[in-house]
Amino acid sequence: MPSLIRFLTVLCVAGALGFGAVYALATFVTPRTREMVVTIPATRLRAPAPEAAVAHPKTAGTEAAAAEASVTP
Question: How far apart are alpha carbons 65 and 59 in whole angstroms?
């Protein structure tokens, strides 16, 4: 039993030291702020060109018929 208490005490002390180190870093250290510039290539800014619609063999006739119907009055 004394070895268990000693082990738990060592773990608590190590945890407290770790917590104290993190708290000290968060409290006493201030980060340097600076402006950041990232260059983006122009190819990434352009939208991709729309690809031509591929006609499906089963629906190609209905698409053509719908196109002709909309053209003729």
Answer: 10
